[in-house]
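task queued by scheduler; priority normal; single chain, no ligands, no partner chains; default sampling; output format set to structure tokens
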Amino acid sequence: MIARPLEKQATNTAEQWSNSDERFRKFGQAIDAIRQRIDQDLGEKDLQYILKIRRLSKRMEITGRLFTHFSFEPLGFTTGVLAQWVHKQLEVAEIGHMALHGAYDKLNPPKDLQSKNFRWIFPVDEASWCIGHNARHHPYTNIAGKDPDIHFGFVRLTPETPHRFVHYLQVPTVLLFILPNFGSAINTHVTGLLDVYIGNGIDSEMDFLKDRTWTSILAAHRQAFRKWVPYYAKNFVFYPALAGPFFGKVLLGNWLADKMRDIYTGTTIFCGHVGKDVKSYEDSAKAVNRGQWYAMQVEAAHNFQVSLPFSILCGALNLQIEHHLFPRLPPNRLREVSEEVKACCEQFGIEYKTDSWTGTLRKVFRQLVELSQPAKSQPV
């Protein structure tokens, strides 16, 4: 059992909700009703929406690469970098994240949008990510010892993660290394490389490694490099080489677009589950019924408010609450139901947290600063 630090008491859901079964049962029914209504309405318009986004992404890629290659003045070069960023951002979030969740599998999509065939334009191994994210993070959000995303090597995201020496430097680590290299950081996490080299500070059963044998360690390296090598060779060797003597200019443009994508995606993800008002749970926490599980998902997440274009570039992950209630709904549908979900939470007394993006980021970094120090009850 992980010791509770004094700085925050973890929620014991069974005790908290023991006298509220009827309220949570009705809350679960209300959320299920929203899901069933949207599921029945899913169809061709949803498929056409994501196909339109994919066409936009391809146009942005072509525009970006042409301008990056053939422009010789700052305005054209900047246009190329921004167009490439939009392409990369759409592919990682609005398209890729939800395709790997299986959001389009029932809509008879093209083969490359089916979850089992989808290939991310992002340096993260798809199979490893699906295990870590779909099978482990979503069912056990913010539960200590079960959600691997709160035990993240260099970073301590909740009080339930034991403090280690590396956490003293977690704020500069996040700012200087993790956010600018977010795709690679996620790949090291979900393939098990982070567990090989630094561990996560808790029992080995939470490792992405099956064991500590050389076979498992080598497999983690193969999984990581099978995505890294083709991705970085294509973006940082092949395309720049096509520019001949202007190799450095194209390399710089591709690198800038990658950094913009990683920083934008990283700040989106950190805002989803980190902050003083985001709940985390002891490893013994378990919902008694479906409605209580929905409530745990809502209270362990945080939304932030942005305009539609920025939400599309986030892949609707500014609506992290809705995504955790309906992880297989397309992003356009998450935006459609957000106000209804908020009203439902208010009706049944479930804490629905939302703020501006900047306000949410402030909460994230305040929490990172606080958690960089050990709790008084926990020795260094």
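post-processing summary
- Strands lie at 151-152, 155-156, 303-305, 354-356.
- The radius of gyration is 21 Å.
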